[in-house]
Each structure stands twice: as C-alpha cells, then as structure tokens.
Amino acid sequence: MKHFEWDVPLIIKSVICSVLIGIGSLAAAYVIFFESNKKILHRQKIARMIFSNKFYEKENVRVKKPSKEADIKEKITYFPKIYYRVKNNYIYIHVAMDMSRFQHRFLDLGEDLENGLFCDLVDRKMEEGFVCFKLLYDVKKNRISIDDAVAENGVLPLMKHMSFLKSTYLKIYKI
Known about the structure:
Elements: H1 8-32, H2 34-52, E1 57-63, E2 71-78, E3 82-87, E4 90-96, H3 103-106, H4 110-117, E5 120-127, E6 130-136, E7 157-159, E8 162-163
Antiparallel strand pairs: 1-2, 3-4, 4-6, 5-6, 7-8
C-alpha cells in the first residue's frame, strides 16, 4: 500500500496562478466596461434625483385580493420623460416640458446635473417641448497644458472643446 503525500509547492503555485488570473480578469473587465458602467451610474444618479426631489406624482389605489379585504397601494401616475445620450465627450440630457407642476424646476436642473454627474455645463437651450442640457464629460481628459493656451483671433482655448469667448462662464483652478 502506497502512502499519500501532499505536493505543497504545486498547490501553492496553482493557488497563486488562480488568484492572479482572477485579479487579471477583474482588471481587464474594469478597463473594457468602464464607459458603459459610467453611463449606468449616471442614469442611476438621474433616477435618484427624480425620486429624491419628488419629480413624480402618485396616488393611492385600492387593490382587491381574493382572500382578504382591499389593500391600498401607491401607484405612480406621472413620471417625467428624461432622455440621456453620450456623444463626442458630451452628455446630452433632454427633459420633456409637458406642462406639469414641476416644469419651472426642470429649467433649473443644470447646476444639479453639473454637480451630480461631475461634468461642466456647456449649453442649455430650449427646443420644441424640451429643455436640453449639454454637459462636457470627462473634464480631466479634455484639459490642455498652459503651453497650448495661446490666444488666436481673440479666442483663448481653455479645454479641447471650450474657449473663453464661447463659454458662458469661466472656471480657473490653481493646481
């Protein structure tokens, strides 16, 4: 009868390889899916903003159950139409102006979106039935160095997609 022995170095090598493969897979998934995860997080933040500011209307509805008496549940009767799109390093958010009681509050969402999504509000305009917010996405990636900030034709570039005369406001930070 042969005696069983553990091959400890082989077990240690296989555990280390398994851990390294797992960490490598997580790092690759983070790099590959970073943009789509960021979009999902932005949409979740917008949804939280809708619920925390109570931009919806609800009413109580009686629901009959076969065995019990009627229960009362809340039903959402109005929910705002908000559209989200990312294109060319900009986030476009369109909010439907549907004559609801929240309409005046929808016009002032720019600063909340700017702070909540960590973007810079570039433009706000009214289209037929919508207020549209244009936010500059990934501000760090679009910064230019001080050597590239040269005035040409009376325009001073601040970022790759923004200049001093085209911007509605100016933010200068000391780094």
